[in-house]
Amino acid sequence: MIRILLSVMAFALGITIAAAQDPIKERKDLMRGLGDQAKIGGAMAKGDEPFDLAKAQKIFATFAETASKAPALFPPNSNDEPTAQDPYTASPKVWQDTNDFKSRFEKFGADAKAAGANVKDIETFKAAFGSIGKNDCGGCHQDYRLKKS
């Protein structure tokens, strides 16, 4: 009997914790962290900051982590309104073509992991970072992110 009661209480606590989470805030925070790493990568790629292999690997690790966490942060009916502080919002296409949206994160994660394993110097970094930025980030943002005009 006590096991059943403990199980029910644990389940109820889990539902309470899950309900208290804010997927919109969580995904915006996650994307903000990704953007911070992308700025570091952009500075290295442009030569504004010296190439640092440890920083490059952290960038790609952050990209891969974001790719694994982000899809769960777009549950149905979790769209938001743009604000003056944050003019971006998810496009309704996120929920209209969920399979494509999720597959883009899978590709992004795979590309980031491969880059982290293969980048050795500034030239390989520029190639990998540029490809991910254009093909993964840019493509997804073009189709699945809206900006308030």
SSE arrangement:
Elements: H1 2-20, H2 23-46, H3 53-69, E1 88-90, H4 93-96, H5 98-118, H6 122-144, E2 145-147
Antiparallel strand pairs: 1-2
Helix pairs in contact: 2-3, 2-6, 3-5, 5-6
Could you name the CATH topology? Answer: Four Helix Bundle (Hemerythrin (Met), subunit A)
Whole-number count of domains: 1
Ends: how far apart?
A: 59 Å
Tell me the series of helices and strands, N- to C-terminal. HHHEHHHE
Structural category is mainly alpha
Q: Count of helical segments?
A: 6
In this structure, how is the largest beta sheet organized?
2 strands, antiparallel
Mean pLDDT: 88
Low-confidence stretches: 15-20
Q: Class in CATH? A: Mainly Alpha
Number of strands: 2
What is the radius of gyration computed over CA atoms, rounded to a whole number of angstroms? 19 Å
Brief summary of the model shown:
The chain has 149 residues and is mainly α. It contains 6 helices and 2 strands, in the order H-H-H-E-H-H-H-E.
What are the main properties of this structure?
149 residues; mainly alpha; Four Helix Bundle (Hemerythrin (Met), subunit A); two-stranded antiparallel ribbon; 6 helices; 72% helix; globular
